């Protein structure tokens, strides 16, 4: 391969990583504006990291007939489960952090989609995630307004 083609390959990978970080930052921005942790940087890193692991998994089969790229994808999901568990807090009153943990899971999936070269799918996943977070936040507030007694003793993280 010539130096030019190698540079183009690396440029495409850099584009993918930057796109993943940007889409993750959009999800993190929603958490930032809601006053929740983790936020911008964490979501950008989750998305970019998932993208990088996915890109690396595409190189695994080269020269190794026993390599299984699906294992790396499975481990991304496991790792995000670990991070998500750290975002969830349970107390006597209820559970907090479920929404953030679910959004972390989505961020990893978006990063994996970008890493596999499916940028349109990643954009669509980001738009759906943001729509769910923003639209359903208002629906939840309406429900809380209509049924205030139902939520008096519960600490649920729907913001």
Task: Describe the protein in words.
Helices cover 75% and strands 3% of the residues. The protein has 159 residues and is an all-alpha fold. It has one domain. It contains 6 helices and 2 strands, in the order αααββααα. A two-stranded antiparallel ribbon has the order 1-2.
Topology:
Elements: H1 3-33, H2 40-59, H3 69-87, E1 89-90, E2 95-96, H4 98-115, H5 119-146, H6 148-151
Antiparallel strand pairs: 1-2
Task: Kindly name the structural category.
Answer: mainly alpha
**What is the residue-averaged pLDDT?**
85
**Major beta-sheet overview:** 2 strands, antiparallel
Unreliable parts: none
Spatial order of the strands forming the largest sheet: 1-2
- Rg result: 19 Å
Strand residues, percent: under 5%
- Number of alpha- plus pi-helical segments: 6
Brief description of this entry?
This protein is mainly α and 159 residues long. The mean pLDDT is 85. Helices cover 75% and strands 3% of the residues.
């Amino acid at each position: 391969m010539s130096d030019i083609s190698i540079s183009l390959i690396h440029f495409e990978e850099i584009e993918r990583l930057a796109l993943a970080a940007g889409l993750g930052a959009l999800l993190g921005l929603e958490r930032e504006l809601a006053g929740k942790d983790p936020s911008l940087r964490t979501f950008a890193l989750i998305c970019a990291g998932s993208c990088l692991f996915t890109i690396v998994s595409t190189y695994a089969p080269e020269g190794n007939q026993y390599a299984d790229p699906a294992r790396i994808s499975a481990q991304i999901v496991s790792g995000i489960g670990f991070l998500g568990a750290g975002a969830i807090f349970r107390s006597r009153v209820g559970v907090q952090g479920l929404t953030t943990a679910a959004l972390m899971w989505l961020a990893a999936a978006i990063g994996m989609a970008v890493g596999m070269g499916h940028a349109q799918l990643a954009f669509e996943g980001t738009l759906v995630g943001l729509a769910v977070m923003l639209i359903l936040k208002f629906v939840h507030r309406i429900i809380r307004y209509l049924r205030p007694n139902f939520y008096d003793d519960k600490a649920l993280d729907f913001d």
